[in-house]
Amino acid sequence: MQGSWSLLGPLSWTGYINKQVNVTAGTDESHQGWLVTVDPVSASLVLVDFREDGGTSMEVVMGHAVENVTVLHEADEVTLDRLRTSVLSPATCSLDPEELSRRRAGVQIWLQKNRVPVEEEGDQLRVAGVLTITAPYGPEDCCSSNQIILDRIQRLIQLQTDHS
Amino acid sequence: MATPVSVLRLPKGPDPNSRGFDPKSARFIALCRPSIATSAASGAELQREQHARSVLRETFLRCLLSMNNKKVRFHMHGKVKVEATFGASDIDVLNFQVSDLHTPIGVQKEALIRSQDVISFTVDE
């Protein structure tokens, strides 16, 4: 697969996720680490390595420089857990359902006060049919394909967090 | 006689419909044509691929977000190693914005680094 890493495509890249890989890049550099993700736009790899002192280091290898990728190890349960908690959203809601519904109601009332059409859909909030807010309902939990609406709603929610 | 000066046009930026990059733009063709393989898949296969793509991209963006304001070390072509504070990347990952770039001749307060010149960069936490 010499030089063809960036042409593999998302489905093939997914097969390398959460595995320890050795990446050769540039003229004579090699990098080792657990593959967290591959950017589908630039084919860049994100590698995470756990140091002996307990810290983690994150490395991004640019897709255009990649020469070769080989799998060294599969991750066991412990490593998988560590990978998930160390990199990806450390604040995946550990709040109890009561607190969550209180926050959801708070955000809903705040948005309505600002004349934003918002409705409840299960445990999500839906704004004007184009934006969803998932638990725990902070600015980072908004999801929309319209970046102007996304920016406005995020700012509004940020204002609410600043006020309370 | 004065010779006419040619007009320098800047490359077209990302289109406003949040697609991020226009595969037909001169900038895209010049800089990252081989990076996106458009698959010939259709139907369920395409949907699976698009899902994988969105999951990968979201994780990548979250990783970039987590690097914001952290010290990074860039490994660049020609055995150049520089340190800087990571700021952001543009939507098609062509440039990185950094602060306090420690170059061999001094510290540059703000800088843009072309991603084509970079092999890899590291953040220690």
Report on the architecture of this protein:
The complex is a heterodimer of chains A (164) and B (125). Chain A is of the alpha+beta class. Chain A folds into 2 domains: 5-87, SH3 type barrels; 97-163. Helices cover 30% and strands 32% of the residues of chain A. Chain A has 4 helices and 9 strands; from the N terminus they run H-E-E-E-E-E-H-H-E-E-E-E-H. Chain A has helices at 10-14, 77-87, 97-113, 147-163; strands spanning 19-25, 29-38, 45-50, 56-61, 66-74, 118-121, 124-127, 131-133, 142-144. The longest helix of chain A is centred in the middle third of the chain and has 17 residues, at 97-113. Chain A is elongated and about 60 Å long. Chain B contains 2 helices and 5 strands, in the order H-H-E-E-E-E-E. The radius of gyration of chain B is 18 Å and the shape is flat. At the A-B interface, helix 1, strand 2 and strand 4 of A face helix 2 and strand 5 of B. Strand 4 (56-61) of chain A pairs antiparallel with strand 5 (118-124) of chain B, so a sheet runs across the interface. Chain B: This is SUZ-C domain-containing protein. Chain B: Residues 1-25 form the SUZ-C domain.
Strand content of chain B: 25-35%
The level of helicity of chain A is 25-40%
Total helical elements of chain B = 2
Considering residues with a beta carbon less than 8 A from a beta carbon on another chain, report the largest interface and each chain's count: A-B, 41 and 37 residues
User: Which strands sit side by side, in order, in the main sheet of chain B?
Assistant: 4-3-2-1-5
Which CATH class of the largest domain in chain A applies here? Answer: Mainly Beta
Strand arrangement, major sheet of chain A: 4-3-2-1-5
Overall morphology of chain A:
elongated
